[in-house]
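USER:
Try writing one entry.

ASSISTANT:
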Amino acid sequence: MRVVIAEDAVLLRAGVERLLADENIETVAAVDNGDGLVEAVMEHRPDLAIVDVRMPPTFTDEGLRAALAARQALPGLPVLVLSQYVEESYAVELLSGGAGGVGYLLKERVADVAEFVDSVRRVARGGTAIDPEVIAQLMARGRKNPLDALTARESEVLGLMAQGLSNTAIGSALVVSQGAVEKHIGNIFAKLGLEASAEEHRRVRAVLTYLGRT
């Protein structure tokens, strides 16, 4: 796997690069600004871009804007955003693009190496990896949305799907059988109007509906 890293904090950038190298994941470019990210993506066409939200010169949303521009220039580019805090509006903008291969993690999650690497690989494969704190804040917005028809248990299952958990892991977390999990997921697909297609594609679409609702 080949990645581009955009992070202005030198120590964190070097730390992530070293961590990925230990997992045989190659960093083909490491930059400290948004323009550098877009240039690196176009030059190297990586499997994944790992991007900080706030970068020079204003430290507001340069990273996110650059990630969106890179995704537009290289359609389908998987993007994993790292942020110090939950930037709710930025999360929604990224997740509402209608495609998979997106992640949004708080930087503290990098400390859990196994979890972070799993998220990197999952997003690169076109899946999702959303921080539980991001999920909690988006859920608290209380907007009317297509998910109103879901039961409490189905919402729990979809929330765990958004974190990237497999059916087996969801069953363990909720202490139910894998068959029960599959039934809940089938109900979720039906209630969200997700017609038959590749299983992974429907999972991603369900998660994006859950997280990117407006």
User: Anything to note?
Assistant: The domain at 2-142 is CATH 3.40.50.2300 (Rossmann fold). The radius of gyration is 17 Å. The chain has a mean pLDDT of 84. The CA atoms of residues 95 and 211 lie 7 Å apart.
